[in-house]
């Protein structure tokens, strides 16, 4: 039994379990980050399984979300794609049908090991441990497609607007000329705390002189911006 949200998509009652698991993970992470630090905190939650239920076949929502995000990528062939903060690599896997090569990068080395095993059957997809805030200079200008789904609000606080604008500039630097950046963040309604944060993220990236807004989309329960470098 699914509930339909207009023409946008569906959520099944059992997907509530996914939101509960995500909320539990976020509480655990908030504690861990102050005690063991950013990288070890994410490694720890991945070591105990699938922290945001992104690969759990019982949940329809996440599967559908990766399909929708991949569907919002402009319809052209890409050369090199990057999924930043890729977690278990489910979106990166979708990109592999659209690009000659795809690199998934995440701060959690544990997640990268798990993703490499899960997606070993996809020859043009590979994973590397890396920090979005400290990427190697060899990435600059290398990607004609970048996706960032639900990662930015996990970066160390405080996440101020000026800082987000600098982040947008450094992400834009990774794009080759005319490359596409797809940004997706949780969005429920305009006034709750998480949606306000998502809106600030998208506004900062849209503001960036290095990026041009191609399109924006609202879906239950996320916001997507497609930008061009
Ligand atoms: C909610 S998960 C989203 C994963 C994936 N994008 C998806 O949609 O399934 C957030 C991810 O951001 C990653 N992350 C957090 N801080 C990061 C950083 N500084 N650099 C790279 N990845 C980071 C976490 O390890 C985690 O995998």
From TrEMBL:
Residues 82-179 form the Methyltransferase domain. It is an enzyme of class 2 (transferase). GO terms for molecular function: methyltransferase activity. Its EC number is 2.1.-.-. One of its GO terms (biological process) is methylation. SUPFAM superfamilies: S-adenosyl-L-methionine-dependent methyltransferases (SSF53335). It comes from the Bacteria. CDD domains: AdoMet_MTases. PANTHER family: METHYLTRANSFERASE, UBIQUINONE BIOSYNTHESIS O-METHYLTRANSFERASE, MITOCHONDRIAL. This is Class I SAM-dependent methyltransferase. It comes from Sphingomonas immobilis.
